[in-house]
Amino acid sequence: MLEHSFSDSEVEAAFAAFPDAQLRHLLRIREIIIEVGESLDSLGQLKETLKWGQPSFLPTRPRVGSTVRVGSFDKRQVALYFNCQTMLVENFRSIFGTALCYSKNRAVLFDVSKPLPENIIKECVRMALQYHLDKKRQR
Q1: How many whole angstroms separate alpha carbon 79 and alpha carbon 55?
Q2: How far apart, in Å, do the first and last CA atoms of the chain sit?
Q3: What is the chain's Cα-based Rg?
Q4: pLDDT digits over 43-57, tens only?
Q5: Coarse DSSP helix, strand, coil percentages of the chain, rounded to the nearest 5 percent
Q6: Of 37, 44, 76, 139, which sits most exposed with the smallest number of CB within 10 A?
Q7: Rounded CA gap, 129 and 74, in Å?
Q8: What domains sit in the chain, N to C, each tagged with a CATH number?
Q9: Do 138 and 87 contact (CB within 8 A), yes or no?
């Protein structure tokens, strides 16, 4: 179905359901998430699953990080969704300011007609996947 390797057929089906205009960006974001996850020894493994019907990524080790979800926001935008109970999106606003577009305290949005800010996405994903570890380190 898709050229990218999936270990979970439900996750693959969720990606396949996105419109072509969004799929390219969402697959690249997925690749970035996997790359970041593989670079972080603290996670254990990176688990790819569905949460709320959206492709989701989380560390297999407990209390290490927060789930990152990907999905459609509207016809022109895709989103990286974060747990709204965290300070992640607020932290992104203070670090990246207007370099990103935000939806309240739950998502970072990307216009499908523009290139992805890959280095910023990598940092956002890293911060999310290590959220609880970083909070412990700050104490």
Answers
A1: 11
A2: 46
A3: 14
A4: 888 999 999 999 999
A5: 45, 25, 30
A6: 139
A7: 25
A8: 9-138 (3.90.1150.200)
A9: no
> Which own/partner pairs from 35-44 qualify as long-range (CB within 8 Å, at least 24 positions apart)?
35/122, 36/122, 36/125, 36/126, 36/129, 37/125, 37/129, 40/126, 40/129, 40/130, 42/130, 42/133, 43/129, 43/130
Burial of 38: CB neighbours in 10 Å, binned 0-12, 13-18, 19+: exposed
Give the whole-number percent of the chain exceeding pLDDT 70. 94
Distances (CA, A) of 51 to 31, 47, 56, 110, 111: 18, 12, 6, 20, 23
Query: How many angstroms separate the CA atoms of 37 and 50, rounded?
Result: 17
